[in-house]
Amino acid sequence: MSTATPGTSPPRTAPPSARRITALALPALVVLAAEPLYVLVDTAVVGHLGRVPLAAVAVGGTIMSFAVWLGTVLAYGTTGRSARRYGAGDRTAAVAEGVQASWLAGSAGVLFAVAAQFLAGPVARGLADDAQVADAAAGWLRIAALGAPGLMLAAAGNGWMRGVQDTRRPLIYVLGANVLSAVMCPVLVYPAGLGLEGSAIANVIAQTLSGGLFAAALLRAGVPLRPHLPVMGRQLVLGRDLLLRGVAFQACFLSATAVAARFGVAAVGAHQIALQLWFFAALTLDAVAIAAQSLVGAALGGHDPDGARAVARRITLAGAVGGLGFAAVVGAGAPWIPGWFTPDAAVHAEAAVVWPWFVALLPFAGVVYALDGVFLGAGDVRYLRTATLAAALGGFLPLIWIAYAFDLGLGGVWAGLAAFIGLRLATLLARWRSGRWVVVGAER
Hints:
By secondary structure, the chain is an all-alpha fold. It contains 14 helices and no strands. The chain has helices spanning 18-47, 51-87, 91-127, 131-144, 148-163, 168-189, 196-221, 229-261, 265-301, 305-332, 337-341, 345-378, 381-405, 409-434. α5 packs parallel to α7, α8 (229-261) packs antiparallel against α14 and α13 (381-405) runs antiparallel to α14. The longest helix has 37 residues, at 51-87.
């Protein structure tokens, strides 16, 4: 267990106020939203080049999203470990977790960038039927992948800074870099005449700048920068469990889209509208989960189990309120929201099938996402992995393929999602009540 360093111990955890949760969650939300918003700007700029460049960015961006996913896994794993050490009063050890995560991040980013130079063509051709789109996507990806080291370093930086409850610098670093890139993208694409490649260069600039700022923060922190293999090994085990959990999510949502597509164009269109709104709600609720990671980890690291339980209760309540708020807005907007996306009456009719499921599930999803954050902060990742896999294999996937086999339509698909959320909620509540997640100390 880490020993306390004089003058670095945070105050003993008290039940967090709404203001404290908001102070951690709002900057996290901005950071989470910065990349998707930049992608929207990038898509709008490239879209004016024509159908082929737009399709190329869609294909290339899908491949780059794998690096984003890896970065998110690394950030979530680092936050909990760093928060425990911060709660134990050892800020130096908390930042040192970020050093080891940054070594892993930088190495993974370099490997991704190098692999993309050789594999961009075959992978793009596997995803795109059109040869022209595949060639354009491969060219874009070879350039954009050069930003992967910076992207991954930024993810590691977000992880340890959230752990020490430093929300200001990640906000400045990520938002500043993305705003700069959003300004540069249209300039490079049009006046500079670089076209599609200009979009990729803007991506690289933003990601490299952001990663460089986080790396510079580590250099200024005055902690040892040498790689420490045992610590990196423990981080890799944590990352493995988070990756397996993420694979379960990906399998569920990809299968849901595949089954919805088999019910016709209108069905998959309605499913896409509801699913993207679901992802938007998840993005917002994830900000509350990030606050939970930081606060719970700090409480357990500071040998304050009662404080950790108090955090869990308050965060879970915040998640439920957030979910109810989304449900109220989405429910009230049912007559109009699908029309924002398409004028097609057939899609609207299918959306009417999805909407009751969508609205009813949001409050429960708010609780699930909040408890995810609690257990991530507690380092109870193995249980999260197992519970998610069980809910996917025992609920979601069987039900949606039954929906396909018996032609149950979108209602059957979303019943599968309801089973997934319901099983996850049941297993998470059982774990919360058992108290087995409450393990104090700087190391779980």
